Amino acid sequence: MADQIINKVAQSGIVTIDLEDLILDRKANFIDIKDQLFHGLILKEKDFREWIKKNDWNMYQNSNVAIYCSADAVVPTWAYMLLAAALRDTSSQVFYCIPESLNAMIAERSLASIKPEDYTDKKVVIKGCGDRDISNHAYVRLTTILVPVAKSLMFGEPCSTVPVYKKRK
């Protein structure tokens, strides 16, 4: 049995976290309220409610949706609330944010489910390579969650990591 291959990575007690498993891959959609403004300045409640009633919300099926207004206009809070209510049955998640912030918001919500105590005194590797683009915000947020509890934190693959943090003795 001298030729037996031993998996030292498996025996090391390293826990690997793959953000692709935590942050579900869904289509992203954006709704800019500016398109519903009268003369690009004000929102008429009656017209807005009519637009919501007539719009086909099925195009947002199982997607993450960012709602926002790119115009320099005062949009009442209830307008965003009406949109969120209209999207309730079709979209996966609705966020109030600009399109550039959507991935960070999705990551923030997904990482809220992590229980830091599960990683107390563990050696943790945050997987770095994958099939899709994960926001840097997700890596930073996960690091802030794990540093207070983990024994060590690394980035990459268990066989080739970049040390990020090591608890002092």
Helical percentage: 25-40%
Structural class: alpha/beta
Spatial order of the strands in the main sheet?
1-5-6-7
Q: What value does the Rg take, in angstroms?
A: 22 Å
For the largest beta-sheet, the strand count, sense and barrel status come to: 4 strands, mixed
Number of separate domains: 2
Q: Could you report the average pLDDT, rounded to the nearest whole number?
A: 90
Number of helices: 6
Q: So what's the overall shape? A: elongated
- E-strand count: 7
N- to C-terminal distance: 38 Å
Low-confidence stretches: none
Please write the string of helix (H) and strand (E) elements: HEHEHEHEHEHEE
Strand content: 15-25%
Describe it.
By secondary structure, the protein is an alpha/beta fold. It folds into two domains: 8-24 and 107-166, no CATH class; 27-91, no CATH class. It has six helices and seven strands, in the order H-E-H-E-H-E-H-E-H-E-H-E-E. The protein has helices at 8-11, 19-22, 45-54, 77-87, 102-111, 136-146; strands at 14-17, 27-32, 63-68, 93-96, 123-127, 152-157, 160-166. A four-stranded mixed sheet has the order 1-5-6-7. A three-stranded parallel sheet has the order 2-3-4, sandwiched between helices. The longest helix has 11 residues, at 77-87. The model has no long low-confidence stretch (mean pLDDT 90).
